[in-house]
Design a protein that fits this description.
Layout: H1 2-18, E1 31-41, H2 45-56, E2 65-66, E3 73-82, H3 86-94, E4 101-106, E5 114-120, E6 124-130, E7 136-137, H4 140-151, H5 156-164, H6 166-178, E8 185-186
Parallel strand pairs: 3-8
Antiparallel strand pairs: 1-3, 1-4, 2-3, 4-5, 5-6, 6-7
Helix pairs in contact: 1-6, 2-3, 4-5
């Protein structure tokens, strides 16, 4: 759909930039990522900003706009450049906020796989490895697990859809579409 296509385009643009990521003084690469807050209750907005400031540094300023899909919520996004693993730390911090719908990505480089996290109140959190073009990468052991569950009576298509994050994509799609045309602000040299 249109919203998912735009998210893929944003991931692809971020991927292009990740290839030129600079390094910190101790040599660890800074990888590019994006935090998409799709729906945040008004009462949590300042708390979400504080959490991101603690993780990404004092330059984080979210530009909130009303989320038309869910009354009383707002949306924002911010790009960042930080050491590997930052996406996981952000997702871990944000998942503690009730009612928050978000996605966090961190692009891969030659030695570190990318990551994608998605979280909704009804589904909880999803994590997947990401390839250089923003595709979800499923490792062999997870595929073998899906096959084993299907052989025990599970539905293989459902198992694979879960591995790819399809339920999270389906729930977040309308929220993504509502954010079409919104710009992403980038934070540089974080961490």
């Amino acid at each position: 759909t249109l919203g998912k296509a735009t998210l893929k385009a944003r991931r692809s643009a971020a991927s292009d930039f990740a290839r030129s990521a600079t390094t910190q003084s101790h040599g660890a690469p800074l990888l590019r990522g994006v935090v998409y807050i799709h729906a945040c209750p008004r009462a949590l907005m300042s708390h979400v900003e504080w959490a991101l400031t603690n993780l990404l540094g004092p330059g984080v300023r979210l530009e909130w706009s009303a989320q038309p899909v869910l009354s009383g919520t707002h949306r924002a996004d911010v790009g960042y450049k930080a050491p590997p693993g930052t996406a996981g730390r952000i997702a871990s911090e944000l998942r503690a906020f009730p009612g928050l719908r978000f996605e966090v990505t961190q692009e891969p480089n030659g030695s570190t796989e990318g990551e994608r996290y998605a979280c909704t109140p009804s589904l909880g959190i999803f994590r997947a490895a990401m390839g250089p073009h923003g595709d979800v990468v499923v490792n062999e052991e997870r595929l073998r697990g899906a096959l084993a569950r299907a052989e025990s009576g599970g539905d293989l298509a459902s198992e694979i859809n879960n591995l790819l994050g399809a339920p999270w994509d389906a729930e977040l799609e309308t929220f993504r579409y509502a954010g079409e045309g919104a710009s992403v602000r980038w934070m540089h040299e974080v961490g």
